[in-house]
Amino acid sequence: MIDCIIIEDQAPAQRILQRYIEDVGSLNLLETFSDPLRALSFLNSRPVDLIFLDIHLPKLSGIEFLKSISNPPKVILTTAFTDYALESYDLDVVDYLLKPFSFQRFVKAVSKLPLNDPKVQDANESGTKATKSLFLKSGHEYIKIDIDQISHINSDADYTDIYYADKKLISSESLKYWEDSLSDHEFIRVHKSYIVNLKMVEKISRNEIHLHTNARVPIGRTYKKILDESYLKGK
Q1: For residue 170, what are the contacts with CB-CB under 8 A and spacing of at least 6?
Q2: Does a cis peptide bond (omega within 30 degrees of 0) precede residue 100?
Q3: What Rg value do the Cα atoms of the chain yield, rounded?
Q4: Which of 135, 131, 126, 132 is nearest to 27 (CA)?
Q5: Closest-CA residue to 148 (of 190, 214, 194, 200)
Q6: Nearest-angstrom CA–CA distance, 219 and 206
Q7: Cα–Cα distance measured from residue 79 to residue 119, given in angstroms and rounded to the nearest whole number
Q8: In angstroms, rounded to a whole number, what is the distance separating the alpha carbons of residues 125 and 25?
Q9: pTM attached to this predicted model
Q10: Are 209 and 190 in contact (CB under 8 A)?
Q11: 39-63 pLDDT per residue, tens
């Protein structure tokens, strides 16, 4: 197990990190701190492998906290601001998570831990398995969904509609975000406004995809050749 702590002063952000850590089975959360000074005292008595560290903290910033430790453990910074990205890499952090971040992005950060550490190898394996599900930010909620149950995704102006099981969930993320996030799964862009789960395809009729959910999705002219050559012939 990789022993880790959270240093974050916002309760909603604490809960999200706690949930993500729980879903990566080989991460073991020891403590959550709102006060960096209390975390510093804890570290003096209890070594840890990894810190999830917010930058904007009371009394001591995350950057100042990191500089105050002589032999720091591995650190993944979390922040809502991009200002500190360059400085964070000078401090040799594992990764820099820009809030709000998805579960996939969280797993990607954890996977950057040194592979020669057997604890990290176990965590990476668990993280790969865990990506079968994700937390979807919908409004003010984070909803855990099974990736394989997403049938298709439709872009609607500034939002995307996620068709999941018998529901439609609304996400503030762009279609490009979902295209990148689901690239390791059997999803493909078939139209400027649509992504489909190939596992959900029942048949393709001319320029339209029929899904097992009875939904029909148009195929854009630009994407038809890619769909035919890269996916259908390969299947």
Answers
A1: 138, 139, 159, 160, 161, 162
A2: yes
A3: 21
A4: 126
A5: 200
A6: 9
A7: 26
A8: 9
A9: 0.53
A10: yes
A11: 999 998 998 999 999 988 988 888 8
